[in-house]
Each structure stands twice: as C-alpha cells, then as structure tokens.
Fold:
Amino acid sequence: MGARSVGWLQRLSVQESSPLPSEERTARLSVLIDPKKKACFEALCKQEDVTPSQVVRQLIRDFIETRMGPDWQEQVLGSGSEADS
Structure:
C-alpha cells in the first residue's frame, strides 16, 4: 500500500471515531465493481478496522470538499449543520 493510502486511512480512522452527529442515512448508493477489487477493498478495510461504507462516505466527503471548498457542509447540508458521516 502506498504512502498516500496509508495517510488517508490513518486520517479516516481519526475522523470516523470523532463523536459528531450523523447525517440521516436514507439514501443508498449501488456501485458495480470488479469482484477481485471488491474483495481486495474489503480486506484492506478490515485490516484498517473500518467498514467499506465508512471509506466510501469519506471518499465522497473528500471529493465534495475538493470541489466546493471547506464550507461545503453549509452549502450541501444546510445552515448550522455539523453532520459529518
């Protein structure tokens, strides 16, 4: 695993364990992926003691923040929102 991946997973562990309120989990995202990549992804998640869902949610947050800036939560989730899951 490259240095970039290790750093990202370390950051994920810290962020996911913080006691922030959760967004409502009412939407489902289905993704088609090669079975070998899925197995590898799940194994890496298990090694880092995170769920695949936690990793995907973090990827989505990072993607949004990269494009919209650090105050994206207010724009996307509404004024005064502290949700970060």
